[in-house]
Design goal:
Elements lengths: L12 E2 L2 E2 L4 H42 L1 H7 L1 H43 L4 H11 L4 H5 L2 H25 L3 H24 L5
Antiparallel strand pairs: 1-2
């Protein structure tokens, strides 16, 4: 099923409000928007849960099996770790794409709820976004913070291994460098997303 339901674009929009007064048409479009939003949100949640577990398993296998180090060599493991770090960044970009699509669907869903004269999940999401600048809890406990934290932590872990096995840096140096780069990635992406995204 397409993440952008075709039915959404068939409803005329003027000045940000839906003009078609037919309740059955609006309700059908609303159902499609809800379905698409839930599908994207569910996929994002699964990816956020699977990625750290899979990465942790891979890191533990590399670190606890001397045979792997002997047969593959440190530099090959370092290259694989760089690849895993880059792959994590790519997944992070895909996550941002999902957040952007959720933001679009939240906006359209809120318009539909206003047209249907109901206060549903999309109006609640929009209200939370508006209150984020005034409420510390709304600004901290949201999907953007979770995504930034999880992806940056996984990226930092793989970067740590990459620096350790490729350049033989000291543990402290690897840890500080990986943490600093991961922190900059998390804060930078969160700052960009939080400007306009209500997901």
């Amino acid at each position: 099923m397409s993440l952008y339901p075709a039915a959404v674009n068939t409803v005329p929009v003027a000045g940000g409000a839906l003009d078609d007064p037919k309740p059955d048409v609006l309700l059908n479009v609303y159902k499609e928007v809800c379905s698409s939003h839930h599908a994207i949100d569910e996929f994002r949640a699964k990816l956020l849960g699977i990625l750290p577990i899979a990465s942790l398993a891979g890191i533990l296998v590399v670190g606890k099996e001397p045979l792997i180090l002997q047969t593959t060599g440190k530099h090959l493991i370092g290259f694989a770790s760089f690849f895993a770090a880059a792959f994590t960044v790519a997944l992070f970009l895909f996550e941002i794409r999902g957040i952007l699509r959720c933001h679009f669907l939240i906006q359209r869903g809120a318009e539909l709820e206003k047209a249907l004269k109901v206060r549903g999940q999309f109006c609640v999401c929009s209200d939370q976004h508006e209150r984020a600048s005034e409420s510390v809890s709304e600004a901290i406990f949201n999907a953007k913070v979770a995504a930034s934290a999880i992806y940056s932590l996984v990226f930092s872990a793989w970067l740590f291994l990459a620096l350790r096995f490729t350049f033989d840096f000291a543990l402290i140096g690897c840890g500080l460098t990986a943490t600093a780069v991961g922190g900059v990635l998390a804060v930078g992406v969160y700052y960009l997303m939080t400007q306009a995204i209500a997901a």
